[in-house]
């Protein structure tokens, strides 16, 4: 059986043999791209090459790229632990053509890698193409030889990619594998018609073909390009014959480590399993984000990291851990990934310190916060209400360090939502009071510069939440 490390190597070798230059993963913090929260695809580091702003001495590249999808345009945070295929941190295998080969070769390479190198059964593979992309449809049918009914035309929402509102864009074609009826969500289950785990999306081939102008007109690019991405954990799970990413060797080892620490068995209880998956996933994201230079904080990228860590801490609590444990699972992650990421593994001491410090601080308030929340949920249920008042959510945030999404996640299990407008106005009220306090404190004599500093500190403290509500990208 191939390990994930072997699959990663086989992928890179395969493309190297086909004249691709192997390019190392870039760090998770985007370099020079304030529009992006974290690197979330293999193509990110090549953006300027695709745009023609930067020249490289190669026209074909391949990489295994560290990615995080926990905010901004791609946010899989809520999916973690619940679907079999989503992570916050994952590796994306990709091959790229910068004005060199196009659809025919991209399709043939991907197909041959999956069916010959990885020996996936042809009978289980399904293809989607963009509805107007007759060219791609014909390649799959005539050159690859697939029956027409296995190539499905999809609309713009699913099979058309764009870099932004303007600029490079184009149709894509995705390769899925049918995982069988046991993974199906019901009789209507099909590619595109539902979001369950039966038809697992493996590989996305993007055909960068047009330049979109501000008025929406598509002009063919003189030199079309290729950008592809396949999740390593997904292909590893499929090759290893398991139906969940969490059962492939990359994740299973971490879960086994958590099982051992918790003295509990994965597979015994569904809620417990969710917690183990969340901790495994979030430990990977936490370890890699911190090793790449992000620190937990109250704003921006650091606040996304903090939210991930606090979610993990709450699940650790649910599994029965009363002492910090994530500083151990994150070290385990880095050590077990040392073969592929030796430079990350050198930062274990630093990562352990940062994680432990954050965990210790949060554990102190987690219990008290949870107690308040439990009482509040009981009260709401008694009164047959389904909305948690905004000021309670704000008190949990302000006094107990509960990010709003953590509170939402906890009460969602009881079918309760949060009055977010109430939360926002409680936050605003708090800010107003802070300003009043300054005015009335008789300390106007304090040097202006000092006061400004403190005010900035306060502001950045509270802006953290504003800056990163569910789907906003940092700008
Ligand atoms: P999905 O529909 O399953 O959410 P996607 O269409 O959002 O996936 P793409 O943006 O096309 O994913 O990314 C390319 C590939 O990266 C996917 O085909 C998949 O193999 C992998 N991938 C995407 N998101 C994740 C994730 N959260 N965890 C693990 N692998 C992922
Ligand atoms: Mg997605
Ligand atoms: Mg998809
Ligand atoms: Mg996709």
TrEMBL record:
Localisation: Cytoplasm
Superkingdom to which the source organism belongs: Bacteria
Biological process annotations from GO: alanyl-tRNA aminoacylation; negative regulation of DNA-templated transcription
Cofactor(s) the protein needs: Zn(2+)
Domain Alanyl-transfer RNA synthetases family profile: 2-475
Protein EC: 6.1.1.7
Enzyme superclass (EC): ligase
Chemical reaction(s) catalysed: tRNA(Ala) + L-alanine + ATP = L-alanyl-tRNA(Ala) + AMP + diphosphate
Keyword tRNA-binding: yes
Entry keyword annotation includes Ribonucleoprotein: no
Keywords assigned by UniProt, alphabetized: Aminoacyl-tRNA synthetase, ATP-binding, Coiled coil, Cytoplasm, Ligase, Metal-binding, Nucleotide-binding, Protein biosynthesis, RNA-binding, tRNA-binding, Zinc
Recorded GO MF terms: alanine-tRNA ligase activity; aminoacyl-tRNA deacylase activity; ATP binding; tRNA binding; zinc ion binding
Cellular-component GO terms for this entry: cytosol
Annotated family: Belongs to the class-II aminoacyl-tRNA synthetase family.
UniProt free text on domains: Consists of three domains; the N-terminal catalytic domain, the editing domain and the C-terminal C-Ala domain. The editing domain removes incorrectly charged amino acids, while the C-Ala domain, along with tRNA(Ala), serves as a bridge to cooperatively bring together the editing and aminoacylation centers thus stimulating deacylation of misacylated tRNAs.
Function of the protein: Catalyzes the attachment of alanine to tRNA(Ala) in a two-step reaction: alanine is first activated by ATP to form Ala-AMP and then transferred to the acceptor end of tRNA(Ala). Also edits incorrectly charged Ser-tRNA(Ala) and Gly-tRNA(Ala) via its editing domain.
Name of the molecule in the record: Alanine--tRNA ligase
Organism, scientific name: Syntrophotalea acetylenivorans
Organism phylogeny: Bacteria, Pseudomonadati, Thermodesulfobacteriota, Desulfuromonadia, Desulfuromonadales
Gene name for this UniProt entry: alaS
Covered residues, full protein: 1 to 475 of 883
């Amino acid at each position: 059986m191939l390990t994930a490390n072997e699959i990663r190597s086989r992928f890179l070798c395969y493309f190297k043999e086909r004249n691709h230059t192997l390019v190392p993963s870039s760090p998770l913090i985007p370099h020079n791209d304030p529009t992006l929260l974290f690197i979330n695809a293999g193509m990110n580091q090549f953006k300027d090459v695709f745009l023609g702003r930067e020249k490289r001495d190669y026209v074909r590249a391949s990489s295994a790229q560290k990615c995080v999808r926990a905010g901004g345009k791609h946010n899989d945070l809520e999916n973690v632990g619940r679907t079999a295929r989503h992570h916050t941190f994952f590796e994306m295998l990709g091959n790229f053509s910068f004005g060199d080969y196009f659809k025919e070769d991209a399709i043939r390479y991907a197909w041959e890698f999956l069916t010959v190198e990885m020996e996936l059964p042809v009978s289980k593979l399904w293809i989607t193409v963009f509805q107007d992309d007759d060219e791609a449809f014909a390649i799959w049918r005539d050159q690859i030889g697939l029956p027409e009914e296995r190539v499905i035309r999809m609309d713009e929402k699913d099979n058309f990619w764009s870099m932004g509102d303007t600029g490079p864009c184009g149709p894509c074609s995705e390769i899925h594998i049918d995982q069988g009826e046991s993974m199906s969500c019901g009789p209507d289950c099909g590619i595109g018609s539902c979001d369950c785990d039966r038809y697992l999306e493996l590989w996305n081939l993007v055909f960068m073909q047009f330049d979109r102008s501000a008025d929406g007109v598509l002009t063919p690019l003189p030199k079309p390009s290729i950008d592809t991405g396949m999740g390593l954990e997904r292909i590893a799970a499929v090759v290893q014959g398991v139906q969940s990413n969490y059962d492939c060797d990359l994740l299973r080892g971490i879960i086994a480590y958590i099982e051992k620490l918790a003295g509990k068995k994965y597979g015994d209880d569904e809620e417990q399993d969710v917690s183990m998956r969340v901790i495994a996933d979030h430990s990977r994201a936490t370890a890699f984000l911190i090793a790449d230079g992000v620190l937990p904080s109250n704003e921006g990228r650091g606040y996304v990291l903090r939210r991930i860590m606090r979610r993990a801490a709450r699940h650790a609590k649910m599994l029965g851990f009363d002492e910090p444990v994530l500083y151990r699972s994150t070290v385990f992650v880095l050590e077990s990934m040392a073969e592929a990421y030796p430079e990350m593994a050198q930062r274990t001491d630093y990562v352990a310190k940062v994680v432990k410090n954050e965990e210790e601080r949060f554990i102190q308030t987690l219990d008290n916060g949870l107690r308040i929340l439990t009482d509040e949920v009981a009260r709401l249920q008694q009164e047959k209400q389904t909305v948690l008042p905004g000021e309670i959510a704000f008190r949990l945030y302000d006094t107990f360090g509960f990010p709003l999404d953590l509170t939402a996640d906890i009460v969602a299990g009881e079918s309760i939502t949060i009055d977010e407008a109430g939360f926002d106005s409680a936050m605003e009220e708090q800010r107003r009071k802070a300003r009043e306090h300054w005015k009335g404190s008789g300390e106007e004599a304090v040097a202006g510069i000092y006061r400004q500093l403190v005010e900035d500190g306060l502001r950045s403290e509270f802006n953290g939440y504003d800056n990163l509500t569910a789907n906003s990208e940092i700008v």
